[in-house]
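pipeline: protein-struct stage 2 | run 1193 | Mechanosensitive ion channel protein MscS
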Amino acid sequence: MLRKLVFVLLLLVPSVGLAFNEGLGEPPPQVERQTPASSVAGFLEAAHSRDTVALPHFLSLSHLPPEQQRAEGERLGRRLMFVLDRTLWLDFSSISQEPTGGSPDTTTVTLGQVPLGRGMRDIRLRRAEGPDGAPVWLFSEKTVRSIDALFEEHGSPLVERLPAWLFLRPVWVLELWQWLGLGTLLVVALLASRVLEDIGRRLGERAAKLTKSGWDDQLLAASRGPVRYALVAVLCTAGSRVLMMPPPAQHALDLSARSLLLVSGAWFVLRFVRLSASFIEEKVVSGAGEDVGRARGLRTQLVVMRRIIEAATYVITASLLLLQFEGVRNVGVSLLASAGIAGLVIGLAAQKSISTLLAGIQLSITQPVRIGDTVIVENEWGWIEEITLTYVVVKVWDLRRLVVPMSHFLDKPFQNWSKVSPDILGTAEIYADYRTDVPALRAELSRVLNNEGRALWDGKVQGLQVTALSERTMTLRALVSAADAGKAFDLRCIVREKLIEYLGRQPHGLPVVRAEGLLPAEAVGSRTGPALPAAGDRNVVAPETRRE
């Protein structure tokens, strides 16, 4: 009786200078238990790394005989790790990092609650005093005593029979055995869903043969594909419970399964509507005979109704997907509330409008053009002034505005002069006489760029080359560079003006037209052919005609 009374007093009153966990001996150097946060982090690190020497030192084991504390501490520590990983998501920002636990009077810290039976069980740390008088935080004795009961409800004997290497160093919140199990579950779900779909399809085809209606055939055709992925979602979310995944991982898997179910349902509705519309159209056209007006009217009605249903399906599916996320739940509610009105308003233009909006989204992601880019569209040179979800406004060089549909930039080629960088090369071609001094003209180009064109030239590229020859002239091409297309255009104009001005001052700069002829008196020839003039009697006439 006295022993029990002393034990109760030890639980109610914080012990000072009393020894604890006598059977474990001195803790290894890596064990840090000075604060609640360091104690929890150290316990999880030791448990996941299978550090059997350090693991028992984080538990209060004084209620056990000293000779059993080592073995029981290892077993209970592993079980507590399984329970915490699968039932309690620890937020270290809310766990005290002070040795006193927040205040000098604090003796226990509650990490959270875990379901046990019909109630909840607190997971707590209790402060004790180490041999040197420093505070030491351990999982409380009451928590340690409830580990086996918690493990029986939330754990499985299977995890204790798996090799230890499957539990080393979890990736994200899942351990290696859970990743392997998740991959196996996905493969099994895919195979099983395929088999179940084939069995259901064969049974459905046999049942459809017993009826004369064609609607069951449309249902079977529309379900091929969506049913398989719906079965995958159901099998995955049901089989994942065996893996005992932590709450974040289980929530993510359930969210993915629900999303797949919604997408599969929308896929089935869209396919069924399309197949049903074709089925009705074929029946009416075959029964209408020569009544072409009736067939066209029905086709128009089917097209309108099909697009309304498709638009409503898109809106409802998007709303239900958004409702799963807390951050955008209000957006999903708004879309769901306006689904009927939106479907009626979109109507006939729903498909085109949606494709245009998708084209705008694609353009904003891939960015073949950006605001301010220099482009050539429809043989018009200008700048991108505005980009919307449906059209792009191009500001033409003469201040006109060219409105281009968004699909044009995805379906047709166009020139973007500033896709990578705005700097650009420009050319200026000049026709000159064969006797033109090209090196001197090249020096004049350098002078023009460093004087009159200094504000426009970026100093990167300059050159003058003979690019073509004709029977009368040669073509010179001046190559210059500028920071953008506008400066390049102005710089080319200056180069043309100054080089033509320089050639005009040269004696043989601008092109001339030459001709050779014989004097009339000397053009007398023999019968066998024209007589050749004697040396010195030949006169060359070279009139110079300036080209403008």
